[in-house]
Amino acid sequence: MLKVEDFNVSHGYIHALKNVSMRVKEREILAVLGANGAGKSTLLGAIAGLYRPAGGKITYKDEVITGQSSEEIVRKGISLIPENREIFGTLSVRENLMLGAFHRYRRDKGHLLQDLKEVLEVFPALKGREGDPAGSLSGGLQQMLAIGRGLMANPRLLLLDEPSIGLAPLVVREIMNILVQLKKTGVSIVLVEQNTKSALKVADSVIVLERGRIAHAGNSSEDIADASIREAYLGKACP
Known about the structure:
- The protein is of the alpha/beta class and 239 residues long.
- The protein has helices spanning 40-47, 70-76, 93-99, 105-122, 139-151, 169-184, 196-202, 222-225, 227-234; strands spanning 2-11, 14-24, 29-33, 55-60, 63-64, 78-81, 157-161, 188-192, 205-210, 213-218.
- It contains nine helices and ten strands.
């Protein structure tokens, strides 16, 4: 579905991504792990069109999308849920959700209400709160809202940046279970996480970024679960 080849991204004088190559298959959850500053968020932002590459190529469904705008990439079926959720606190839950479908409003208006209903089925905790200000929700509900807003774009590839940050373990478990259910519906997921244990429980494949380079890649989480590899790439204090 998605192929990144020899990808390089710089932020000023900082070479944030260095010759990164990776693949995401259909109906797959790929976990991207690594310490702070490893380049994980930059990788998601580059795929989503927020950062222009200094070199390399991104191919999505056999089409080269390198250098395309974020608007174009959303229309092609790639949706980014950013770190810290970035919801609009003064807008209602419903308004936040509908903003995720803004680019679809003219051509797909007739399906939006049905899509909204389906998103609320995925996140039943949001039902009955459609009129509430998004800022009044708990952190867990805000994260569900952020993912729901991304789903309103009707994506085939979901990019999630640290969805567990600041959440209680039970809420994290619920969100990870929802990601597994989304995969079963045909949505592929790139999951950036520092909560290593939670990410590895749901991931089909794993890459570890270290200082902008891929330090490890595997088809299963078994080798990452090994204590020596966890310590080498993720630090002694990784969860």
